């Protein structure tokens, strides 16, 4: 069995875009509308020394109801089955309460995680990372999924955890 890496985070932070970069497919739905990926979506990343499965999830939302609670449930399953979770946040939006809520959930699950600070293109990377330092996650990586930036350091950090 290949190790499993799950992409988790609020809607619209760039999870599906990162999934596409890691799996080099356009299978994941990338859309300007938040919450397009309702179900978990699987692919294989072959860019690192050893292959691993990538799971894309719909966005986790606070106080979710209806279809969004189903999405949150799917993300919960993805967290459960993951060996490592990539908690993805949006450098443009900055740190939001929902990011903290998702992190609390991950900490309760005691999963190894990396904090992916996405959308740093056109931003000061250090400033972007500093904002999320308040979360207290040791490994935070600046990434621009849309521009394929920061992917190699991400793969290196993942290799150390898998
Ligand atoms: P998801 O809901 O977390 O899966 O987010 P998506 O991957 O669907 O992306 C949401 C929006 O953010 C889309 O309009 C993407 O083009 C955009 N996006 C994703 N990654 C980046 C990035 O690195 N930089 C910028 N500027 N936009 C991004
Ligand atoms: Mg998505």
From TrEMBL:
<feature type="binding site">
    <location>
        <begin position="9"/>
        <end position="16"/>
    </location>
    <ligand>
        <name>GTP 1</name>
    </ligand>
</feature>
<comment type="function">
    <text>GTPase that plays an essential role in the late steps of ribosome biogenesis.</text>
</comment>
<feature type="domain" description="EngA-type G">
    <location>
        <begin position="3"/>
        <end position="162"/>
    </location>
</feature>
<feature type="binding site">
    <location>
        <begin position="56"/>
        <end position="60"/>
    </location>
    <ligand>
        <name>GTP 1</name>
    </ligand>
</feature>
<protein>
    <recommendedName>
        <fullName>GTPase Der</fullName>
    </recommendedName>
</protein>
<comment type="similarity">
    <text>Belongs to the TRAFAC class TrmE-Era-EngA-EngB-Septin-like GTPase superfamily. EngA (Der) GTPase family.</text>
</comment>
<comment type="subunit">
    <text>Associates with the 50S ribosomal subunit.</text>
</comment>
<feature type="binding site">
    <location>
        <begin position="118"/>
        <end position="121"/>
    </location>
    <ligand>
        <name>GTP 1</name>
    </ligand>
</feature>
């Amino acid at each position: 069995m290949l190790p499993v890496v799950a992409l988790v985070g609020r809607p619209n932070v760039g999870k599906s875009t990162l999934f596409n970069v890691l799996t080099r497919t356009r299978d994941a739905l990338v859309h300007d509308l938040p919450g397009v990926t309702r179900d978990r979506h699987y692919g294989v990343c072959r860019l690192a020394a050893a292959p691993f499965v990538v799971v894309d999830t719909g966005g986790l939302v606070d106080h979710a109801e209806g279809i969004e609670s189903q999405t949150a449930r799917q993300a919960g399953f993805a967290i459960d089955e993951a060996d490592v979770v990539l908690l993805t946040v949006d450098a443009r939006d900055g740190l939001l309460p929902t990011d903290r809520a998702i992190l609390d959930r991950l900490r309760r699950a005691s999963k190894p995680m990396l904090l992916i600070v996405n959308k740093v293109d056109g931003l000061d990377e250090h400033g972007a990372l500093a904002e999320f330092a308040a979360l207290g996650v040791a490994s935070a990586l600046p990434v621009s999924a849309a521009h394929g930036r920061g992917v190699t350091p991400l793969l290196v950090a993942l290799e150390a955890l898998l």
